[in-house]
Amino acid sequence: MPERKPRGAFIVVEGLDRSGKSTQVALLEQRFKAEGRPVRLAKFPDRATPIGKMIDAYLRSQSEMDDHAVHLLFSANRWELAQSIIDSLNAGTTVICDRYAFSGIAFSAAKNKPGMSYEWCRAPDIGLPAPDLTLFLDVSPEKARERGGFGAERYENADMQERVQHVFERIGVEMGDGSRWFAVDADQEQGAVTDELWMRIQPHAQGTERPIQRLWEELDERVRNSHLYI
């Protein structure tokens, strides 16, 4: 039988606004390319799709929508690209993703709106491809405010960011056996953050033979049979 080739690794970079995610993701992409490794960059929300354009208008405060509807749009935006991410991974391409389902849960649950519990916010994303590694860029509110552009979008205020951070902390604990979710101090200088991210990513750079897993698979049957299922 022919030897099975490893698939690409699915690596997600998460964090609060102005934590440096987009900069670090771009640097990681450059590193993979420089080493001749196949890599694909993804970003959520993907504002180029029809659903993404609706989300973009909302984030720029150019339109108003019910919070429940907005949350489901964010999830639908991820499902739009789920199969193409799987196809890339199976083709041996590493996928580096700027934000993913964890941001969707954190920003919606942090609103503390009736009918938007943590469990409700998580439900629409059950079954999405699960990252092999998630790196959370942990930035202090003071550092975030120092960085250019803070406050340009709807959720960029100190109170909201603090609530979002608390939800991210919960997700990190739940994800956790210590090998698939790492918090990185994003108050450090850019180069130090880049070095720490690469240290975590390097064991995954050659890909993996582990089958692609699904987010919160163990919850799937229970949620499908409950009022939480969307």
Automatic annotation (TrEMBL):
Q: What is its EC number?
A: 2.7.4.9
Pfam families noted in UniProt:
Thymidylate_kin
**Any single GO BP term:** dTDP biosynthetic process
Q: Which PROSITE patterns match?
A: THYMIDYLATE_KINASE (PS01331)
Q: Which domain of life is it from?
A: Eukaryota
Instruction: Outline the extent of the Thymidylate kinase-like domain.
Output: 13-196
Q: Which keywords belong to this entry?
A: ATP-binding, Kinase, Nucleotide biosynthesis, Nucleotide-binding, Transferase
Family listed? Belongs to the thymidylate kinase family.
HAMAP family referenced in this protein's UniProt entry, alphabetically: Thymidylate_kinase
Q: What is this protein called?
A: Thymidylate kinase
> What lineage is on file?
Eukaryota, Fungi, Dikarya, Basidiomycota, Agaricomycotina
